[in-house]
Design goal:
By secondary structure, this protein is α+β, with helices and mostly antiparallel strands. It holds the Pfam family C2-set_2. Belongs to the nectin family.
Length: about 375
């Protein structure tokens, strides 16, 4: 284009010179001055036009519009060229050209993610770029070939936002008196880096946090925040939140987490629910599982009924006698409790007989007390005298 531009300037200056030579009134004007004036006029015209672009930011997997058009010029447009320099292709690479008749054509292999959505006649070279990946981040150059101005271009930076993958991992702490790691909250592979923080509420003075970040060659960053504290029963079951925020997220993400302090079953107690029902009670995290057995003998079926921690004696007979054991266990340990059952023969009949006798004596006693209070015994004695 430089050769064409110089040729045009030469022809223009030659024409001016011939005009000057034909008219005596211009004979005193140096030809060199005319040539310089013509060059300045061309330069001013080139300086007036503008190639409009701009920086573009898009989320990974989204669609980007790469704007590029020329304003303030009447020059003829002969071609539009797009070049790119990206993470995948760090050297300047020709992408496509747009010609007035042929339209958009890829130069070094096709890429269906690009679509020319501009208008050649309006000097608009805008591209649509779909399913953008991290490897596509870089600089895209739009070049307009104009006559007589020559090539005019602008660079369009393409920046990617990569939302993080988030999760909370329980470190499974067990009961103790020393500080341990409760859990880690991770925001992985984000661009730009995400902020990770904990909301601990009432546990503010009982826990502490530590945050570290690792940056990778592809421009992403993984941020990990750890929650520490002393694993006591008092802190077990409290809920906290991990909050993740950053430019790659439209809104904050809040991940709830319940602090779990794990421990084996504590002392096992057996409490009576009723005359013939008993329950095995203990503390454990995770919750204990219960197994009932009878020492030295199998459980007398169908004389008893077992449902989890509960044992029910279905009939109070002597064949149920024996030492029963309740075993409570979880992944961290096990503990036992014992119950001795002794049912004497005829115990129920004797009990009912004793109950009837006591009831009769109570009735007689109440009747005698009533007679005494109302003076019935005294009147009867007077009559007998």
């Amino acid at each position: 284009m430089k050769r064409i531009e110089l040729h045009v300037l030469f022809m223009f200056s030659r024409t001016i010179t011939m005009i000057i030579q034909r008219h005596s009134m211009f004979s005193m004007i140096p030809c060199r001055l005319v040539i310089i004036s013509a060059f300045l006029l061309t330069r001013e015209a080139a300086d007036a036009l503008q190639v409009i672009g701009g920086s573009v930011t898009v989320e990974q997997g989204g669609t980007a519009i790469l704007p590029c058009y020329v304003i303030d010029t009447t020059d003829d447009l002969t071609q539009i060229t797009w070049q790119r320099r990206t993470r995948e292709k760090p050297h300047n690479d020709n992408l496509l050209t747009v010609l007035p008749r042929e339209g958009a054509q890829f130069v070094n292999g096709g890429d269906d993610r690009f679509k020319y959505i501009g208008n050649f006649n309006n000097k608009n070279g805008t591209l649509q770029f779909s399913n953008v990946a991290l490897k596509d981040e870089g600089s895209y150059t739009c070049i307009f070939t104009l006559f007589p101005s020559g090539n005019q271009k602008t660079e369009i930076p393409l920046n990617l936002l990569v939302p993080p993958f988030t999760n909370i991992k329980d470190n499974l702490p067990t009961l103790g008196t020393e500080e341990v790691l409760f859990a880690t909250c991770t925001a992985a592979g984000s661009k730009p880096p995400a902020e990770v923080r904990w909301l601990t509420g009432a546990l503010r003075d009982k826990v502490r946090t530590s945050t570290n970040s690792t940056q990778y060659d592809n421009g992403t960053t993984t941020t990990v925040s750890s929650l520490f504290g002393v694993p006591t029963r008092e802190i077990n079951g409290h809920q906290v939140q991990c909050v993740i925020s950053g430019d790659s997220l439209s809104t904050e993400k809040s991940l709830p987490f319940t602090i779990q302090v794990y421990f084996p079953p504590t002392e096992v107690n057996i409490r009576a629910i009723s005359e013939d029902s008993f329950e095995c009670v203990t503390e454990a995290n995770p919750n204990a599982k219960f197994i009932w057995s009878r020492s030295g003998q199998p459980l007398p079926q169908p004389g008893v009924k077992v449902e989890g921690a509960k044992l029910q004696l279905l009939s109070l007979t002597s064949d149920l006698n024996g030492l029963y054991q309740c075993e409570a266990s979880n992944a961290y340990g096990r503990e036992h409790g014992q119950l001795y059952v002794h049912v004497a023969a005829g115990a129920c009949s004797a009990a009912w007989a004793l109950f009837g006798l006591l009831l009769t004596l109570n009735v007689i006693g109440v009747a005698a007390w009533c007679f005494f209070k109302c003076g019935c015994f005294q009147r009867v004695g007077d009559q007998m005298q």
